[in-house]
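Regression test case RT-17, inverse folding.

Input:
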């Protein structure tokens, strides 16, 4: 069996188990354990419990692989690297908003070859293996095509620092009149999967980290979307864009003129 498929199946199995644990253990209102970059950038005990479960399951099968996790940083230095977000959308998780996910990607020699995003509250597990398409519940996904900017439903997200949010609000003020409408779901991984499934036409955000977009980005790309940064760069924390070819370029050019890779 193709090794990428094997990695994908293992990632899916682990993402499903982590999701089941989170549903079983989530209290009515989870408590904030610590904050990170700002008082609104929160971590719950279950963020850490989810990542610990995922790391333990990976190490049991692949002890020599590297793991990058949002909460635990990087461990190991193998040519295979697992990129893990134990709860993408922690604030949604905290408040009971049903838009959060477990995200696991597998990278080999710097290329993401498999990705899984388990949007747990909706019981939707998105999967992709490079070159084999993106899938949900046995159906192959395909992003919307031929949608011009003025009819595009676009998702975005906001950072945690007030200076960054001020710029993001300024950028949004110029984007909103040029598109059909804006959505803000609160989970980059889920937004990217929504583009793959045709529920959104595009997505852009300043600030997502590798664990936010690694799996969802592959899923969107395997569904026919283009995923990248500004001026030919790959997706990155400065700015990540996702849309079908054509709309990607229109959204890119609009954002480029707004200098979105900055903070106040």
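Golden output:
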């Amino acid at each position: 069996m193709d090794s990428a498929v094997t990695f994908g199946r293992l990632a899916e199995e682990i993402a499903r188990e982590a999701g089941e644990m989170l549903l079983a253990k989530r209290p009515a209102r989870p408590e904030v354990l610590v904050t990170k970059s700002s008082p609104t950038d929160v971590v719950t005990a279950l963020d850490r419990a989810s990542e610990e479960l995922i790391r333990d399951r990976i190490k049991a099968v692949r002890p020599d692989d590297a793991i990058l996790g949002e909460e635990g940083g990087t461990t190991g230095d193998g040519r295979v690297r697992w990129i893990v977000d134990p709860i993408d959308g922690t604030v949604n998780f905290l408040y009971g908003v049903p838009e959060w996910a477990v995200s696991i990607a597998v990278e080999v020699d710097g290329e993401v070859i498999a990705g899984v995003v388990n949007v747990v509250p909706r019981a939707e597990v998105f999967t992709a293996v490079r070159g084999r398409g993106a899938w949900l519940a046995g159906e192959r996904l395909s992003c919307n095509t031929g949608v011009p900017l003025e009819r595009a439903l676009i998702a975005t997200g906001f950072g945690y620092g007030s200076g960054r949010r001020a710029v993001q609000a300024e950028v949004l003020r110029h984007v909103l009149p040029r598109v059909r409408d804006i959505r803000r779901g609160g989970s980059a991984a889920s937004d990217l999967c929504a583009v793959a499934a045709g529920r959104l036409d595009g997505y852009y955000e300043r600030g997502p980290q590798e664990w936010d977009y690694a799996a969802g980005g592959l899923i969107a790309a395997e569904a026919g979307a283009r995923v990248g940064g500004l001026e030919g760069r790959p997706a990155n924390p400065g700015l990540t864009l996702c849309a079908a070819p054509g709309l990607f370029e229109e959204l890119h050019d609009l954002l480029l003129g707004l200098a979105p890779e900055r903070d106040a």
